Hints:
This protein is mainly β. It has a single domain, classed as Jelly Rolls (Sandwich), CATH 2.60.120. The chain has strands at 7-10, 13-16, 26-28, 35-40, 50-55, 62-69, 78-88, 94-102, 113-118, 123-133, 138-148, 152-163. The strands form three sheets. The protein has a five-stranded antiparallel β-sheet with strand order 3-6-11-8-9, with no helix packed on it. A hairpin with a 2-residue loop joins strand 1 and strand 2 (13-16).
Amino acid sequence: MQKALTVVMGLGLSAYAANGVIPGWFVSGGGRADYVATKDTSVKKSGTSSARFTTQGKTDKYGTLMQAFNPQRYAGKRVRLSAWVKTQGATGRVDLWSRVQAANSPGDGPGIAGSLTRLPETSDWKRYEHVFDVSADGVSLQYGVGLQGPGTLWLDNVKLEVVDKNTPLSDGSPTEPVNLDFED
């Protein structure tokens, strides 16, 4: 069973109409009108349902199924975002992304921290993770999956957790200064 997600946009915030079926998630991006998110009870990694994100007809614009919230609870901490994703028939960009936005960060881009993982055009369920630091300057923690062009993806078992500062960052950045005396 699949039901369409209804999103009401206004004042830079999103709210769900009474019949919204994926609470906390919304569709965004320049091509948001070309995509639909549904709760899928037939294709799932575990549990009773997953999120299905797909195009409505032909498009070459980017759309994303995402969450955004105030990161104050995570400020100054290192976090791991993990998610199970399955893809089918994607012909353009398909990705899992995460970012911390500052007050002056552009609406599209990496923000002040985060990661981007390009996903295969077609794949079975696979777990992906991003590890990044949440700056005290962050005003919004955002993450989601996106498509540019035809295709479908499923998202399940998303988890955001605080991890030890020694956990390596996804971008490969060192967690401590390295070779400060240039002797190595």
